[in-house]
Specification:
Largest sheet: 7 strands, antiparallel
Number of helices: 4
Radius of gyration: 20 Å
Distance between the termini: 42 Å
Oligomer: single chain
Amino acid sequence: MTTELMNEDDNNREVIGTERPSYLTDYEKEDFGTGEILKVVRPPMIKIVQKMSGPPVKPPYTDGEIVVLPMLIRVGGGPSEDNQDPIEFTPIFFFRSWFTWNPLQMKGQLSAIRESSFDENGEIAKKAKGKDTRKEPCPENNEYKIVHCEHLNYITLVDHPDVTDLPMLMSFSRAEYATGSMYGSLIQVRRAPLYCCRFQAVVKDVVGNLGSWKGFDISNAMNPWVDPAIVERNKELFETYKELHESRMIEFGEEHTEVAEETAGNEFS
């Protein structure tokens, strides 16, 4: 599997992992029909199957397995803490986002996400930082609360033959926010570009105030550094996703909503 990086300003194409055949040089100035694709990038999502999960994820997969959505590719995990396959991965790019979530009790009446933003100085981000402003009465039913929260997002490459060179999204929010923060600390203490670092994760059982779920347990990989031969490739991916983020071209799919809902923990009320 390869990752194709496209420049919106011209027709040059750089393909990571695959050298373009010579016969395609005749098409340098042609319209490739990809202009609309460039307006939005929606990375696949890394998800742990939860007890709340339903079709098309469960079945066929079971609680604790790690799958990539929407392709439904299993990359690791397992049914219990002592019976699973760890995943090894490299973070490529990190960014924050902020969401206002409607109450889970209003599901079916309101969309899960009320508002979203990438602006760290925006209204949602400001409210998410304050203990007294993080929750507010839901305008449609003040018995319930809307929640403003920060999401920690890592564009990630997983070492698995079925997703080789495919940048994916690993996102942490709500009850899993602490795990995402700890992961960030592991990256920072390396004192090296994040795209040169390798980590591993297994799935653990987590219990919150109002529920339980499956979460990531992240640690340094046995081989903590990437192969020197792919450092430049990873750097190019970093620069690409940095530009995409600055241009607000990264979007979240429905899979992102499902992951946050299923790991809400003590935010269910």
